[in-house]
Predict the structure.
Amino acid sequence: MNAKLRSGLWAACTLAAASVEAACSRPLDVPMAPIGHSVSFEGDRSTGIYPTLLRELSISTGCEFQMQRVPRARLEKMFETGQADLLLPASVASSRDQDGEFVPLIQVRASLLMLASERPAPRSLAELIAQPEFKLAVVRGFTYGTAYDSAVALLRTQKRLIEEPDAAGVARALRRGLAHGTVMTASIFIGTLAKETDLAPLVKQVRVDALEELGWSESGVYLSRRSLGEADRRLLRQAFMQAARSGRVWQLFNDSYPPGSLGGSIRPLP
């Protein structure tokens, strides 16, 4: 069964299961930043895993999702101030809990990513920090837990951090030799390289190394506590949870990546 047919069947099933009264109280603002196969844009139209998921949920819930392109750092600020109803995709982080309610969709694991080099890779964030010449490039607004946030903050004070608006900017910084490596999920980084013509040749050069402090964590969607009422959050919570439990979210990832390429960075919820 091809991907489009599976998508149509899943949407039809969820539509049949949804209450006829179900609908959000107003159109929802969902600014999004490009992030590999997860979110991309063709002109003003959003494409990728999460825009596809939102369009399917629009059918099943009756909610209207108004998606627009913004830089990741701006997206974070918009969510913090209640100008964005959803933050998607987003890793779970205690710093976001005041602004939103988290709904897990998948599990992710960030790694140290470097381009082809004979340089020994640090085995931990602590070892990376202990190498005074090692510079790290990151996407502004990304978080992978307390250990990651602390390392980024320290490297920033030591002027050893290159901050870019997106994963493509990080890749170009590595290609230019401005930084020695980056930390993010390999699927995001490789997916970004594959979609950018000038960066695609770098895919074969990517080296992936685990870091001791970074294990598996949850990624999903934050529902705004500032802009959404309880009824809207309840409806969205149930819809996203159903998409994850049914296997639809994991199926969208598998439809977007080559077979066997996700094992080290993304896996379904247990």
